[in-house]
Amino acid sequence: MVTAKMVKELREKTGAGMMDCKKALTQTNGDMDKAVEFLREKGLASAAKKAGRIAAEGLVTTYISEDEKTAVILEVNCETDFVAVNESFIEFTNNVAKQIATTDVDTVEELVDAKFIGDESVTVKDALTALIAKIGENMNVRRFEKLTIENGVINSYIHAGGKIGVAVALTCEKASDVLTALAKDIAMQVAAANPLFLDENSVDQEVLNKEREIYKAQALNEGKPEKIVEKMVEGRIKKYLKEVCLIDQVWVRNSDYTIKKLLDEKSKEVGSPITLSKFVRYERGEGLEKKEENFAEEVQKQMEKK
């Protein structure tokens, strides 16, 4: 059964009309992913990149070691934006990020069972429980990733007070202040343009094959002759790769440059090849859904209790 909530979710994901979303869900027996594909094949959804609804609150933060060889990107969630700016919550999040960078924990489970860097008489889990009791709101350490590098630098960028966090690692045999600034610039690029892959070699073939199928269906639905459909598909694939591969993206600060051209130019300036080794981008709450509250109803409930 197709519900209004399902139609609303599909509309938010694709930007397609309500009736088109309802039809797509009906045709695909309520399968959300297949409904997105259905809309794209019909040319009714333009988004090439799908993401879950972003609604959970909290912070994405980063920690960079003094030598710029180690970095951590971390997401800690809470229920409201009020808690996300609470000093105790921010302090806890920063301490956890530093703890990950300076210890050997690999998973969230290992992390929360470890002694807390802010108070070694308790575990991270205990410290979080105490914070929940103090503030009166549920919280959890959701995910983290640790980056390390031998030659080069790692830098990060935090956007909108912790809504988006990015860490970028650059490899280079020569030390230079240019690298730190360049890594920051590329981190800002990742935050703004949201690439899915580092380069074409990183693209998942299954993803690429799925895109080809969708573009082929689009072209055929547009009434294009089958003999030119393949050329159209490959043309759209090239455009898709330029949009989703960081190396091939147009630099947001100067449209005369791609990120590859920027790296080539900075390599000449430094006198040694600079390689973009890795990037990680977290967006607060991506893939999570926050419970929606009707403020008027909530006030009415509180009044009825009195």
Automatic annotation (TrEMBL):
Q: Report the residue ranges that make up the Translation elongation factor EFTs/EF1B dimerisation domain in this protein.
A: 71-286
Cross-referenced InterPro entries, in alphabetical order? EF-Ts_dimer_sf (IPR036402), Transl_elong_EFTs/EF1B (IPR001816), Transl_elong_EFTs/EF1B_dimer (IPR014039), Transl_elong_Ts_CS (IPR018101), UBA-like_sf (IPR009060)
The principal location of this protein is: cytoplasm
As one GO molecular function, the record gives: translation elongation factor activity
Q: Subcellular location, in the record's words?
A: Cytoplasm
PROSITE patterns recorded:
EF_TS_1
List the keywords (alphabetical). Answer: Cytoplasm, Elongation factor, Protein biosynthesis
Involved in Mg(2+) ion dislocation from EF-Tu: annotated span: 80-83
Give the protein's function.
Associates with the EF-Tu.GDP complex and induces the exchange of GDP to GTP. It remains bound to the aminoacyl-tRNA.EF-Tu.GTP complex up to the GTP hydrolysis stage on the ribosome.
**Matches recorded under HAMAP family:** EF_Ts
Family membership, please give it.
Belongs to the EF-Ts family.
Q: What name is this protein filed under?
A: Elongation factor Ts
List the source organism.
Answer: Clostridium ganghwense
The uppermost taxa in this organism's lineage are:
Bacteria, Bacillati, Bacillota, Clostridia, Eubacteriales
